[in-house]
Design a protein that fits this description.
About 30% of the residues lie in helices and about 20% in strands. It has about 450 residues and is α+β, with helices and mostly antiparallel strands. It starts with 10 loop residues before the first helix and ends with a strand. Pfam families: Peptidase_S11 (PF00768), SPOR (PF05036).
Length: about 450
């Protein structure tokens, strides 16, 4: 989506392609389906949020693309960071080139610009801003790839066994999928675990500077008791919606996925609420989703992909995803089938093995060809090492942005090395003529809480 269109493409073609991109994740339909193109298979579930009882289910365990429902997990991890004091509502969220380049719907913040965490939350809830989602992911995870792994680990800890996240916004990715049941679980978890922030989901608009930005959830104010949560749309997913309802002590969380239009999706949700709210219990059975902020898998994954304060450990034996699986509770072991194409019914999904959740995220087993003459000679400063080249490059970008003056004359690069049959990537800054110069730079970096060490190339 980010590739520029060639100048020789006719204007009309460029226009309609642009319109198609803008429609992604916004819930805007682009005309009727073409002949022979079936609508996505619907999936839905209604859960009594007091007791956890399933009141209605249709293809609830069938694999579907989440689209912008993905942002529910991005927001969950944002609320978690807020509750732990890692960030505040006034913390600035800086937009990298990657975040600024996300396709609409977006706020349109330029590279290097920033907004507050609270503005990022509101933009994700109402406008479903893809650029804000990526910027928040990079703030909390160091890189969007790291954050996606954190999202999947958190999903497991919440009991979402059939969900894998690859990005923070929900734009198309064939490796990112979920089920209606898992989305209901996440909706309940948001309400139970972070009631102090849950009111954001009820906002129908917010002010961004002098501009009022309206939301996409048209059931707010239309159906009594609806207080959120999130809409979503891509062409592959169809129109999705998670709704939370609370009326006279009765509470529901309902999910509709794969709608053929925004209106039909909303009407189906309204029908389900009307039919099943009277059947919900007024008596609470207590918390339905266990709150586990210290789950072992999530912590260990964070340590692998997010070096502690940027501390590099390239020569220590790395912890692998497989090792995490072995050290944590037993997890499903069957390989999942990919999501079915639009118009085809997906089979009930197999359980997702934890290690396979990250298939495709591991680096190539072949060392990239390196022209050693192009690498900096002399002394270098190393700031990180990772089994992912993308993560190593993200560490370089983050360090360079945080320490521009210190590294003004240095050049960042990655260099692969192989250990135990696995390829890893060192993140280094070169251009220091002497050991003293490298040590001086590293000392200055440590004063900014960036761990590093100097080494001769």
């Amino acid at each position: 989506m980010r590739q520029a269109f060639s100048g020789i493409i006719p204007l009309s073609v460029r226009f309609f392609r642009t319109v198609a991109i803008i429609a992604v994740a916004t819930g805007i339909a682009i005309g009727a389906s073409t002949p022979g193109q079936a609508a996505p298979k619907n999936a839905a579930i209604v859960i009594d949020a007091n007791t956890g009882k399933t009141l209605y289910s249709s293809n609830a365990n069938a694999r579907r693309y989440p689209a912008s429902l993905t942002k529910m997990m991005t927001l969950y991890l944002t609320f978690e960071a807020l509750s732990k004091g890692k960030i505040s509502k006034s913390t600035q969220v800086t937009f990298s080139a990657n975040a600024a380049a996300e396709p609409p719907t977006k706020l349109g913040v330029r590279k290097g610009g920033s907004i507050t965490v609270e503005t990022a939350i509101r933009s994700m809830v109402t406008k479903s801003a893809n650029d804000s989602s990526t910027a928040m992911a990079e703030l909390l995870g160091g890189s969007e790839a790291n954050f996606a792994k954190m999202m999947t680990a958190k999903a497991r800890s919440l009991g979402m066994a059939n969900t894998v996240f690859r990005n923070a916004h929900g734009l198309p990715n064939t490796g990112q999928f979920t089920t209606a049941r898992d989305m209901a679980t996440l909706g309940i978890a948001l309400r139970e675990h972070y009631p102090q922030y849950y009111s954001y989901f009820a906002e129908r608009s917010f002010m961004y500077g002098k501009q009022r930005i309206n939301g996409h959830n048209r059931l707010l104010g239309r159906i009594k008791g609806v207080d959120g949560i999130k809409t979503g749309y891509t062409r592959a997913s169809g129109f999705n919606l998670v709704s939370s309802v609370s009326v006279d002590g009765r509470k529901l969380v309902a999910v509709v996925m794969g709608g053929s239009s925004g209106a039909s999706r909303d009407n189906e949700m309204a029908r389900l609420i009307k039919a099943y709210l009277p059947k919900a219990s007024k008596r609470s059975g207590g918390a339905l989703i266990a709150l586990n902020n210290n789950d072992q898998a999530s912590q260990q994954i964070a340590r692998i992909v997010l070096p502690k304060h940027g501390a590099p450990t390239p020569d220590a034996k790395p912890v692998t995803v497989e090792a995490i699986v072995a050290s944590t509770a037993a997890l499903p072991s069957r390989k999942p089938a990919p999501p079915q194409p639009v118009g085809q019914q997906a089979a009930e999904p197999a359980d997702i093995p934890f290690a396979q959740a990250y298939a495709g995220a591991e680096p190539s087993q072949q060392i990239d060809p390196v022209n050693t003459a192009s690498l900096p000679s002399g002394w270098v400063v190393q700031v990180a090492a990772s089994p992912s080249k993308t993560d190593a490059e993200a560490a370089l970008d983050k360090t360079a942005a945080q320490a521009r003056a210190i590294l003004a004359s240095a050049s960042g690069y990655t260099v692969p090395f192989r250990k135990g049959g696995v390829t890893y990537f060192r993140a280094r800054f070169g251009g220091f003529e002497t050991q003293t110069a490298a040590l001086r730079a590293c000392t200055a970096l440590k004063k900014q809480r960036i761990e590093c060490f100097a080494v001769q190339q």
